[in-house]
Amino acid sequence: MNPPARSSRRTSFGAHEEETIHPLPYRWVILSLLWLLYAAFGLIQRAIAPLVTPILRDLNLSYTEMGFILGSWQLTYIAAAAFSGSLMDRWGVRKSLFVGALTLGLSTALRALAKGFFTLLGAVALSGVGGPMISVGAPKAISIWFEGRSRGTAVGIYLTGAWIGGIAALTLTNSLLMPWVGNSWRKTFLLYGLLTLGVSLIWWLFARDRSPQASATVPGTFALFGRLMKVRNVQLVMALGLLTFAILHALTQWLPKILEAGGLSPTGAGAAASLPLVAGIPALVVVPRFVSPRFRTPFLGVSVLIAFLMLVLIMTASGTLQLAALLLFGFIIAPFVPLLTLILMDTPEVGSAYMGSAGGMFYCVSEIGGFAGPLIMGVVVDLSGSFLAGTFFFAFLCLAFFVLTLLVKTERR
What we know:
This protein is mostly helical. The protein is 77% helix and 3% strand. It has helices at residues 26-47, 52-59, 63-91, 93-110, 117-145, 149-180, 185-206, 221-228, 232-261, 266-273, 275-290, 296-316, 319-333, 336-345, 355-384, 388-405, and strands at residues 5-10, 16-21. Strands 1-2 form a two-stranded antiparallel sheet.
């Protein structure tokens, strides 16, 4: 049996990167495992949204407190993401994602023990420590195992895991799992936590690293951040990521409650809230693969204007028109993160060598919006008494996103 081949190449910052080349067919095993991790991540992200009503009642929380809890994991994520990418460039993907998945499972199980605002806040915030390892590690793994057009396909495929996990949380939590455990949101969180711990074990058993676990040629964390942030496209992608996460998290975390306030039952609201996720799955598979690099930014610009109109319809329409707006919003906004990731990945100063660090920066900045979005929505609801004003605020953030897309430059390869 021939030993694995080794190759060495010079990165854009002058370092040599040596990697062990495993047989390429194994990349599909890696992609399947990444999908499974992201499905668990998506499940945990969305699991709390359909349980907001009983949690508010049992723990006697205000909307502002609940909004802070919904966004708390993004707050810890911001701090963790700043260093997770750099650590991953040294440790390797396998160990990093395993630790991340373990932390997510523990965070979810601990929610079952919450006695009030601070204990639930701490349990939810803990998931922000493990989350960066998964969301930063996945594109790092794709940049190593895939090249060319197949990168777009792979990014789209593994991200469908998060959306399918989210659909499961929104549609099954109140309709199936809650009745099965005696309508106990605590037991629901415990089961979701055990499921995530099982997924982490599967990853550890079957995942492999393709590049060395450590490299002395990787620059220091802050020195590398400084170099990357001087790149124009990196700066713009960070800003676009912040706006994307603010809009996406504000709507998805509060959507079941928004629809309940509009007259739907908890089960009906959960099902309707899953529609954007259902519509987003085909978009994730198709758009990143078939939108060529030079058309990625124009596609984002047109899409965000459509998203603006859909947000307005979601709040002002009802019945079939509202459901159609939910579907189209999901289809339009789903490709935003993979397209921004691909723009970052294809930037010559980043590449696969520094995708871990660049990805950590991206999610660190983006989750500032992810934290602020649900919190702002909760504060506006407490002040105004409805979700209308908050939703229109995020609709107009779409216009700021559009302006920034006009400044992104396509790299000439």
